[in-house]
Amino acid sequence: MKRTLILLMLSLTFACSEKVSKLKLPDYITLEQEIGERPDWHPTSSDKYIFVDKPGGKPFEKTISTGKVRSILPPDCDNCKMWRVYYLKNGNYLMTIGPTRDSATIHFVDKDLDKPAWNTGIIAHEGLAVSGHTWQLAWTNGPDIHYGEIVYSDDGVPTIENVRVILNVDELKERDKAIPGEGVGATRYLDYHEPQNWRPPYDRELIFSRYGTSTTDKYSCEAWIWNMDTDSVKNISNRHEYYDEPEGVFPDGQYTLVECDMFLPVSQHAQILDLYMMPLDSNGKNMVRLTHFADYKMPNSDVTYKANQGVISEDGKYMLFGEGRSNTNDRPGTGFGIYLFNFEASGINVNPGVGVDTSTIDP
Predict the structure, then answer these.
(1) N or C: which end of the chain has fewer CB within 10 A?
(2) CATH T-level fold of 2-346
C-alpha cells in the first residue's frame, strides 16, 4: 500500500509540475523525466535506468520504451533518504542512505525488493565508482579514495572485502611535485577527491576528480586517472583554467564525459556548465561539446541552466543527463529533470568498441 502511495504521489507531481525548461532542444535530445536526478543505466540494457526524485529522496526505475516508472524502495525504508543509486552487475542495487549527504552509508538492495536494505556501515561522501563488469567499488571519505570488492556469501549476503586506501591525499600532493604541469602555477588542490568511473572494457583504471582553485582563482576540477596495475596517476584534462569534472564513461574506454565551463563565462563554484566528450588519452584536447544548456537563462531570471550528471548506456548509443541550474541555494548536484541524448541522431560517431560480454551474469 505504501509503495502504491509513493508511485501515486510521484505521478501527481509529474502531472502538476511545470515544464522543466524552456530550452529549444534539438531533435536528438528529449526530456525523459520532468522530475529526477542522478540516473544510472542498467548494465545490460539501454531501455532501463534508475534515479532518485530529489536529494535525499526516493529511488525509482524507469523503462523507456513503456514509460513505466516503478518504486525500488526497499522494505522497512519508508523514511529513508537516498542520495545515490547504482546498478550492480547482477541487477541488484547499491544505494547510499542516510540523514545527510555526508553521513550516507553504502547499502545493498536485492533486485526482488523482498529484503530490507543491508547496511555496510561504510560512509561514502558524494558518489561511488561502481563497476558494471566486476565487483570493484571505489568511494571517498573526503581526502582519501578507498577500494573494495563485493563478495556474496553462499546464502546470498553481500559484504565488502579487501578494503584499502588506494589514493591518499598527502601522497597525491607529494606525487604532484614530480608531474610536469602540476604544483606551482597549476590548480591548487583541496583535500577532497571523488571517484567517478572504472574505465571499460577492463576496469583496471579509475577515473576520479580532484577539486581545487584554478589558475583563474575560481573553484575548479581536474580529471585524473589511476592505474591499479602500476599504481600510476595521470592528469587527463590538464586544463587548469577550466572546470573539468569527469562523469560518465563511454563503453570503448576512449572517452569520458566532463562537466565543463569552456566557451562559457568563467564559472564560480561550477555554476555554469555543459557536457563535453573528452578523449582519455589526449591531455584535454579535441573536446566535443554535446549540450548547450548554459547558453540560456531561465525566463525573467539571472539563473542559468546547466547540463550535468551524464551517464552513457552500455551499448554506447545513448546518454542520460540532468538539468541543473546556476543557483547556489540548491544543494550540489540538484537535478530538475532527466534528458535522453541519441548519439546516432545527433550525427556524432560513437564507436562502442569491443565492450564486454555481460550476457552471463554471475550472482
Answers:
(1) N
(2) Neuraminidase (2.120.10)
